[in-house]
Amino acid sequence: MAITQRQQQLFDDLHAKRSKQAEVLDDFAMRGIKQSVVDMYNQKAHFIYELLQNADDARASEVTFELYPKKLVFRHNGTERFTVSEDREDAIPYGHINAITAIGFSGKQQDEGNKIGKFGIGFKAIYQYSSTPEIYDETFCFRIEQFIVPTQMASDYPARAPKETIFVFPFDQPDKAFNDIKSKLESLNNPILFLRHLQNVSVIVNGKYQGVYSKKSQFKEVVEDITHNLCEIDNRGEKQMMHLFTRPIKVNNEQKDNYYISVGYGLTEDGDIDVETRPNVFCFFPTSEKFGDICCITHAPFELVNSRQQLKDTSYNDSLKRLLANLSAEALPILRDYYLKSKKTIFDGNILRIIPPRGNYWPERDDSVFRKKYIEIIKENELILSREKLYSTPDCLLMVSNLSLANLISTDQLQELKGEDVHFLNAKIWGMANEDYELGNLLTQTLGVETFDADDLLGELTPEFMDAQSYDWVKRLYNHLHKKEHETWETDDDENAWDYSACSSPIVKTSTGEWVSAYTSLGELNVFLPLKTKVDDTDYKFVNEEYLKEDVTRNFLRNALHLTQPDSWSYIGSVIFQHCQSKELSSEQLLHFFEFIYKYLQGIEDAEKRAEKLGEIKKSFALLTQNDSFTLLSTPIYYDSKMLKSFMYGVKCNFVASEKYADFIKRYTEERYRAFLIELGVIFRPSIQSEENYYEGWVPSAVIKRFNLRTHTAAKYTDYFFPNIKEFADNKRKDKVTSQTLWSWLADENLSKYRYARCRYRYYSWYSAQPADSKLYTELKSLKWNCINNEWVSPSETYLEELDAAGYEITDSIVEFLEIQKKERDLKELGLTDEEIQRNRIGKMVEESGLTEDEVQAALAKAKAEKAARKVAATKSADNNERKDSFNGNYQTSDATNPDAHKDERERKSAIEKKREEWEKMSKAPNGRPATSQSGGGKASSLDIPDMHTGGNPDEPFFDNAPAEKKQSSADKCKRATEKFKRKNTEAKNAAEKAEDANELLEIFETTTPYSFLWFKLLMDLQFAEHKKSKEREFEVSFTEFEITNFGKGVSLKNPSKDIPDWIENAGSLDVFLCSLKKTDKLASSIIKIDGSSVELAIDAKDVKKFNGVVQIKLIARDSINHIDSLRQRFIQLGFEDEYNLNENLNQRIEFIYGPPGTGKTTRLVKKLSDVISNPNGYKNILVLTPTNKAADVIATKLFDNNNCGDYLTRFGATESQDLIEEAVVQSRDTFFIDSLDRNIVVTTVARYSYDCFQPDNCAICDFDWDLIVIDEASMVDIVPMIYILYKSKDADFIIAGDPKQIEPVTQNDMPTYNIYDMVGLNSFKEAIENYERFPIEALTTQHRSIPTIGTLVSQFAYDGLVKHDVARTTPKPLNIDGLSLQAINFVGFRTEELDRLYGLTAIGKSPFHLYSAILTYNMVRYMAEQIEKNHPGKDYSIGIVTPYGAQADAISQMEAYHPMSTPHCKVTAGTVHRFQGDECDIMFLLLNPPANPGENSHVNNDNIINVAMSRARDYLFFLMPQSQLDGFNIKRRLRDLVTKKSTITYTELEKLLFGEIGYIERNTNVTCHLPVNVYSDSMLKYEVRISDTALDIQIND
Question: What's the pTM?
């Protein structure tokens, strides 16, 4: 076609314009543009796909590549010709020549959705190989020069066919170009599969035909909006059939035909769905990405990066992925119907392989959306084959436990039992699911296919069904049950013997032709083997003799069902019990049965067996009761004593008819009769009862008034009462003997626990109301049921002496409960004056004290001196409001003054301090003596030195029930102080010798065989010595702020006077003093937890009023070593030989759960325990141990929320969980009765195992017979208590859960740490997954907490990169912070300088500290919280600040106390790594302030600590660390190497953002040492800081 004048003009204009542009590109400053454009397509010969896409856009059906050594020729038969237009952006249409010579501007128009691009920037990839490409078309023949300049050529390409377009690419580097292009042409991946016009791509190399890429449609149909094509795909001789499904899609809610998506299912040579291939994602051509484990090939018009190899991370692409998931799943019914037309089945086991496995994720994109849609479609459609090769839905299929069971039951039999639509699963699918756990779980747990085993079969059988079956079928049934039955029926004695005692199915035919169960509902034989001699007793059922002729049926009945001929117990179970249950028996029969059972029980010598049989009898036997009736023992029956009848007068109840048993009493005596009745559970005395009431919506006004309820929507309360006490008091026939008997019964009870009725009410949440007097207390105290001098009175109307005189038994329990007063004689009646009465009382007190006359005089003299001292103290108190008596720990006030006494007091305290200094010098002196020493000394004996260490004696019993000793006298205290001073002196003399012994002990330990019994004893001695050396002191701290928590059951102490050590959480003793301006009260409490600079205490709700007017709270903790020593003593009592290796002989019934952070370890544990407790034959008593109270609360809360576990749960010990307290699952040693439930799950700490106890009988936890012990967070448990538990409870099964890559046990000083993972060699996650064999282990490989970016860092850092990710979000939640461009992982540098108070790396105590980073972090987090509130209104975020060191955490907590960082929707928490274990936050700040000289063992270089810290983050992670590299601070370089995509922020950038200037913190921070005056009084700077070697104070000024 000849070129027109207009076309020629446009071409010339374009040539001129591009020539000028080329000159610009050739300028040295612009040369990089061309290369950067070419380099965007880094794959070799990528332009091949560009040529194919443009040929398809030109509507070509065939193309040919002709490759020669020096050039490539590309031909296509497209109908669209090259054009030229004005070179303007708004030119429509934009010319092809314009587009192919432009950079970054395509000829593709906006509405051409499925055109891949008209000579866009991708075409420039050809310049990798040719700098002068040539194009020959009908109208234009031109060459492109200088990258963008079109230059006309005079002649056409030889042999170009009419309407053919030819591209010629002369090679610049022939060898490289030829090889690259040849390789690419030979390896094209389905190049035309998703092109609309191209059908054939031919390849010719050096003139030789190399094959063709083609696509031929063999079948086509349209199902609704889905086009289904069966195509033959030819990839140069490799042919495959593929089902392609195409659907048009909407763009911007507008349907356009030229936008479509496609999925394809390839077939194998056998014609099955290819489920093994994992195709790349296509956008017309293959990208480098895959959608996880899906087997279908997918195509959509995705948004791609410039290289066209990756998908952009956009919501548009996400929506396309969801549409592809829908199409891939909806194609399955179409596939099924296509093959059903030819009576073929396409889906057998492959239907399961199509579904991607749970939690399998590709590095960048997941397949969960496909899995979800596949499951939805398969559940709703008939897509799974049955045994009969019919398609069915999952809810109509059954998966048998073994194929022999399926062979036993025909389809007709199955449908008669289960319904006409029910089928067995196809055998091939069954085989796949049986071999592959994941597939089996997919079928049963996800798709809902029910399992069917012998248990289920037996549960469906009916007498009518059995009667319709042949003898041969029953024989096959017996044979199957005998050999192949469910493992839960297997006995320990014989693997082929099965226990059918629980079987209630009618599988035995009787001699009368009736089908009955082998056992009754009570577990007794219901049918028997025939007797050799005929009997007339029609009470027995005998087996039909037809089933005793053949070995198969006979062996089953005898050996599996354990049928026997009748014996005594058989008679009881099948005759007596049946008669009692049916109530068809006479009095004579029942009396005969009574004596028969008595004789039977008398013949049982084994106590355990007797108790077992007696338990069965109580369920089903009956007794003759008065009024000529009989009553089952399961109903309360009372002994017919005169006293009981008197007490129960007027109450409807059942009394034993003892007169009917006169013959029995005559033969066996009254005593044996009564004893037998007691065994049978007959009530000989009434007991205190409880009643529970629940009101929903409407609560009676009486209840509201009684418990003083406030606003409520529901209420429930528990009350106590003594049955019939009111009726007895009102009964005019009552007698004194009955009254005295009732009194004696009550006197034996522990009445204090019945004092109050307790109520809980709901108002959004449940709360505890004020307790009210119980009904028992009210009635017993107010009713007239006591007879005094022939007059009936209430206990409130009489005195103790009168009751005693009237013959009522006096005990402390009933006297205290009823508050009975002791009558004092009126001394005035005897003629004594007031002064004489006072002297009488004082004399009586002295007499009762037991002191000698000298001791009384000494005590009076001392009291007189102390009284004078208190008067002086009161004078000073008037000026200072209060003063602390530093010696005895009390606050005292007085109104008088006495300067001399005050002087004596100072001298006395000075003497005490001097002695204390001498003792400290003694312990440090090389020879154990001070330079000027005085041993013993009378001077010391005159001092009242209190015993500050009250540790227990390890040789004494752990739980001593002996009564408490009387309070010691002052003389005894003096004597004890003198003895203690002498003992201290002796200990000081031996201090140096002990130090030498410790070094020798360590040397011996290091050379002893690891894990031998001797090794453990040496380790415990070392730990004991270190613990005693570092902790055998008291710790005293004061708090000036407090907050009542847990609705009056807790108090949070804040603003301490010094840093709080962690050890006080488990202190041996604790004293808490509430100091007001007027007095000091001592408070009974216990520590729940230590959290940074605050302490949480548990208190009694009635003590809340004591906090009124309190200005200071003082806490004194003494760390007694008896807990550690008691464990040591108990461990030694295991009694092994020294060489006995506790590792080699470790209990084999241990299962490990290895759970990296976020993998749901606790959830998995709860699931296991739920499965165990839901099994009626499973474990009865389960103990769950954790290293901390916090961990115990976490698992206890999850167990309580579990439907199966909550009813059996007890949280034993201290807790901070208000929910657990409200639900009444928290118990202590005095309130927990383990026999109150038939099953128990007890959650407590590891420490309590060796020393604590519960009821009844103060049973030690370690001595109880546990069935299963679970130890959670095992990495934190020291090896000594761990091994003691494993050997002490050796008969239990164990589950040990944890992660050796998390926090290890905390030890004193430099003591080495050991845990169970070190011992059993389980420290590698890779080994745990691949080849660990010593113990069963369940490795949790998928984390559900952190986004993949953070999860991958944690996985690579600690778990060999093997932890996968199953998180719904692949990118972090939105976080818009003005002035900061953030990634998921961010590094923040801070300034460090030596010998500088602000920037220097220092320490407080032994805890490294860096002031500047603490202030910077606090302000950054506070700014971020404010920004979240501003930019994300109403969205909840959580931020955590975690640091390895307590001093750093304390600094941030102090600033938080002045100006909280949290906002209404952004919660901020700060603490150490140890306190953060188990928690998680959206945003985590990991503040790494290294010590001045960090070593390999420093916390900042400890992999376990860093792992725990950074794995707390869900969406964002900030590392704050020194900006400059410090020697020994190795973790910094390691983290930076692992994180490839991060943002880095300097401290100068932060200060500029936060404060508007650099250096703000330095100019506004004043650092001083601790002074005895208030340096804050005239503060002018923002941050006023006081630092000493042991303490830190920070104040923020507005």
Answer: 0.45
